[in-house]
Amino acid sequence: MSPPVSRGFRHFRRPAAGEQDRVPPGQYVAQGFPVLSAGPTPHTPLPEWTFSIRRAGETLKSWTWDEFQALPAQDVTVDIHCVTRWTKLDTMWRGVPVDTLLGQVEHDAPYVMAFSDGGYTANLPVQDVTDSQAWVAFGYDGQPLAAEHGGPARLLVPHLYFWKSAKWVRGLELLDHNQPGFWENYGYHIYGDPWRQQRYAGD
Amino acid sequence: MVALDGNAIGGLLFEVFGTDMTAAQTICATCGAAAVVAETVVYLRAPGTVVRCRTCGSVLMIIAQIRGMSCVDLGGMTALDTGQGG
Amino acid sequence: MATAAVRGRLTWQTATVTSVIRETDAVRTIELEVRDWDGHQAGQHLDVRLTAEDGYTAERSYSIATADDEPVAITVERLDDGEVSPYLTEELRAGDQLELRGPIGGWFVWDTSDGGPLLLVAGGSGVVPLRAILRHRQRAGSDVPARLLYSSRTLADVIYHSELDQYRDGVEVSYALTRSQPPGWTGYSGRVDAALLAKVAWPASRRPLAFVCGPTSFVEAVAGNLVALGYPAGRVKTERFGGT
User: Fold this and answer.
1) Residue B62: closest CA among chain A residues belongs to which residue?
2) Do the chains contact at B43 and A37, CB–CB below 8 Å?
3) Domain limits for position B76
4) ipTM of the complex
5) Per the domain annotation, does B51 fall within a domain?
6) Is A39–B43 a contact, with Cβ atoms under 8 angstroms apart?
7) What residue numbers bound the domain in which A98 lies?
8) Deepest in the core among A197, C4, C186, C205, taking most CB within 10 A?
9) How does pLDDT run across A3-44, given as a tens digit for each residue?
């Protein structure tokens, strides 16, 4: 028996004409930018912040905030899709392409685990964070990325569900074999393609 | 995102455990702190609900609702006691 | 000893709105007719679920504003960027239906047998479950001494003002207005801080039972201050309502 419809209740909207093909199945278009978190907002001071690429417990390459800011950055406008069903169109970010970061190390790893302050992790295939598909973003909407949205820097991988775009990211661990990250461990899909509605393991 | 407390998931936990759990005692597996569920730190509406120890911040419990089923991981606690025995 | 758990069903059911009462500009009390209801304890809440035509659902929790022997009601504050509260406070009307489940909660509850003296500290809409506690205390004919310290931005934001002003024997109500005070204001001004609590709270030697409810930052500051005044942590019950 379906629940009663609440007369007059509407919030997130259905995609407008022309937006249909930009909104994956089962998603609603959000007006604001919802804040979802698994823990308290970390506050790593910039002088202590580093971004590292690691493999088997060893740091292969690391950048301080100043070194990171000196890397060539891009402005990108992308649509983002959260597994909790909101989609935000035309979000504007500034960040360093992951291609640039991974390009500085010699490796043949097929997978990475993004790791963040506070212990959050998200696993991804290397081929999904290269080829201009991913950034480490430090700017949003023309401003420095706010702490509640993952600042000073977060991973940005817009073609996958947004839980893969780890907030407060501090590096990438190169993996020989795919391993589940934080939410993948609790039943979320190991890959997370919103266009195939890969929300949960087994979808 | 502002954290709430275990009161906010009273309904969810009732659904999972079949009884009110807000007054249940937990012991953190990481730091040993004892607390009632009502006083734990709760992050709602992530892909899942994350319950953390107020003393050390470690995860006590995670509840993810996957395809209409509640999946609960209690690995962060060494005890969850409703004090009702049996 | 407080009842620790409530056994029984907790299923979603459809209730009918019987009236929507304006408490302040941003706050409404919604009275409900709930078919399957076995009563509730003061301090408990219920979960509300809204369903849009396209199947989108949103759930929120709201404290029950009334005592056990009264019709069930919730008091809701409209949050400007809220998803559910603008609907409940501006759109909902008598005759509409609401999906809910409850009552919920076994910790942040008070019954007369729990004794006192009671210290109730409210921040904004955190007054709702504390008002239910006072109503229950009154209707049960209890003489447990109670003090309510209620923090609001302005006098116009005080919910249940005339009702709270009517309490006499055994219940002392004081207000702290944080943003602005009317001319001739004799209540407290500014935030509820350690100094104000030291003045208003029962001394720890009387083994009081405290209930603190409101925004998360308010609750944590007040609870910390009460513990610093000697209240055992187990005698300070808290319920956090979220932002600001």
Assistant:
1) A186
2) yes
3) 4-81
4) 0.93
5) yes
6) yes
7) 24-29+47-196
8) C4
9) 788 998 877 677 777 788 899 999 988 888 888 899 999 999
Q: Out of C4, C105, C237, name the one closest to residue B10 (CB).
A: C105
Evaluate if residue C243 carries a pLDDT over 70: no
Do the domain assignments include residue C141? yes
Specify whether C126 is located in the same domain as C225. yes
Looking at residue A1, what is its pLDDT?
57
Is residue B86 over pLDDT 70?
no
pLDDT of residue A52: 98
Tell me the residues of chain A between 157 and 176 that have a Cβ less than 8 Å away from chain B: 163
Query: Can you give the pTM of this predicted structure?
Result: 0.93
Residues 6 or more apart whose Cβ sits within 8 Å of residue C20: C28, C29, C30, C31, C92, C93, C94
- Residue A6 and residue C54: Cβ atoms within 8 Å? no
Closest partner residue to A188 (CB to CB) among B1, B3, B47 is: B47
Give chain C's domain count: 2
Residue B72 lies in a domain: yes
Domain-terminating residue out of C88, C104, C120: C104
Largest CA distance in chain B: 38
pLDDT at site B46 = 73
Neighbours of C216 (CB within 10 A): 19
In a domain, B86, yes or no: no
Classify residue A35 by burial, with Cβ atoms within 10 Å: 0-12, 13-18, 19+: middle
Neighbours of chain A (3+ CB pairs under 8 A): B, C
Kindly determine whether residue B64 and residue A186, on different chains, have CB atoms separated by under 8 Å.
yes
**Is B35 part of any domain?**
yes
